[in-house]
């Protein structure tokens, strides 16, 4: 292929990646090393009580932001190096809590609390999504031709629903006087509060994530099942191999590249978990790394946002995703080299 033809096809994609991925990432990386704050000045302000004869006036000093000619707040930028990362990680406080064996104090630090949930959420849902997706794919593959279409449609419904809407639906079903909560209360004859503690909220989040994402894995695996060698399956059947043995020694090895692919997509997606935090309103008990970055960007009472800490949190999240992707990428690279 000529270079000009190659450039015409690849150029737009490269340009979009530079504009919407590379440049913003570099900008966030730079912002994590500097802090932009409003410039304040101290002024004397006099306040008087209502009245005429008994009016009392008090003069006090207050700090107010400096405004420019256009009425905008004047800001100054200071390069602080790794200070924003230190403010997010709080290493001294975290090490003191770990040295004392105080897990509760360690989990009171927002970043480590968010990291603990994010890793737990990621590694528990990963095998469940892969296993459930493979089971659904096998059901679709073995279904009769006349019902295969409806089975595929029903299987895809959870994945079609918008993530936030799905999370809110599960929230409404189980929160307070929700339908499922009220049903369980009548069956068990006791009050149930699934949103009163962190561990029950986490379980509901994981159940929702598996329910929502497993159909995607199922469709990918179903497509892979169509390419399994029928000769190998027939040979194994003639040799007396059971259904489980055919699945273990023929089907799963054949699907392994797709399993790695779905696993990588799931790792990247769940490590950035955010919709469940919003949909389940779990900020009081459970937070994630992505939600922590969002929280840093929320303006405080003075209208200021912790952009530097948000940038540092975003970069730490990016580093975590890269570390999680190294093992499957190494496996993919070994498989690619072994096939040549």
Description:
The chain is mainly α and 340 residues long. Helices cover 68% and strands 8% of the residues. The chain has a domain at 115-339: Orthogonal Bundle (MetI-like fold). It contains 14 helices and four strands. A two-stranded antiparallel ribbon has the order 1-4.
Structural class: mainly alpha
Low-confidence residue ranges = none
Multimer state: single chain
CATH topology of the domain at 115-339: MetI-like fold
Number of strands: 4
Let me know the largest β-sheet: 2 strands, antiparallel
Percentage of residues in strands: 5-15%
Give the secondary structure arrangement, pairings included:
Blueprint: H1 3-31, E1 34-38, E2 40-48, E3 57-65, E4 75-79, H2 83-89, H3 91-99, H4 103-107, H5 110-142, H6 145-160, H7 163-174, H8 179-188, H9 198-225, H10 230-238, H11 243-270, H12 275-279, H13 289-296, H14 307-338
Antiparallel strand pairs: 1-4, 2-3
Helix pairs in contact: 1-14, 2-14, 5-9, 5-11, 6-9, 7-9, 9-11, 11-14, 13-14
Which characteristics define this entry?
340 residues; mainly alpha; MetI-like fold; 68% helix
Write a brief caption for the model.
This protein is 68% helix and 8% strand. It has 340 residues and is mostly helical.
């Amino acid at each position: 292929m000529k270079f000009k033809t190659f450039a015409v096809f690849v150029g737009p994609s490269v340009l979009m990646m530079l504009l919407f991925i590379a440049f913003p990432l570099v900008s966030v990386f730079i912002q994590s090393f500097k802090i932009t704050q409003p410039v304040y000045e101290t002024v004397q302000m006099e306040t008087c009580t209502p009245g005429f004869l008994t009016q009392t006036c008090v003069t006090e000093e207050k700090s107010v932001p400096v405004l420019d000619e256009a009425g905008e707040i004047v800001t100054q930028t200071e390069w602080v190096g790794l200070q924003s990362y230190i403010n997010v990680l709080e290493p001294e406080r975290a090490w003191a809590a770990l040295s004392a064996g105080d897990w509760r104090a360690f989990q009171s630090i927002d970043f480590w609390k968010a990291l603990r949930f994010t890793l737990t959420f990621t590694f528990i849902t990963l095998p469940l999504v892969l296993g459930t997706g493979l089971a659904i794919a096998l059901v679709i593959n073995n279904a009769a031709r006349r019902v295969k279409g409806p089975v595929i449609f029903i299987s895809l419904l959870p994945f079609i629903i918008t993530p936030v809407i799905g999370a809110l639906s599960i929230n409404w079903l189980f929160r307070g006087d929700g339908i499922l909560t009220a049903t369980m209360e009548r069956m068990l004859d006791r009050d149930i509060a699934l949103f009163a503690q962190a561990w029950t909220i986490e379980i509901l989040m994981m159940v929702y994530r598996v329910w929502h994402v497993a159909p995607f894995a199922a469709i990918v695996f179903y497509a892979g099942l169509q390419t399994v060698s029928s000769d190998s399956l027939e040979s194994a059947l003639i040799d007396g191999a059971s259904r489980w043995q055919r699945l273990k020694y023929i089907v799963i090895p054949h699907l392994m590249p797709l399993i790695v692919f779905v696993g990588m997509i799931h790792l990247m997606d769940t490590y950035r978990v955010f919709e469940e935090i919003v949909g389940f309103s779990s900020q009081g008990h459970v937070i994630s790394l992505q939600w922590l970055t969002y929280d840093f960007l929320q303006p405080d009472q003075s209208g200021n946002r912790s952009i530097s800490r948000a940038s540092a949190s975003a970069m730490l999240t990016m580093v975590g995703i890269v570390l999680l992707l190294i093992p499957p990428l190494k496996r993919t690279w070994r498989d690619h080299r072994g096939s040549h």
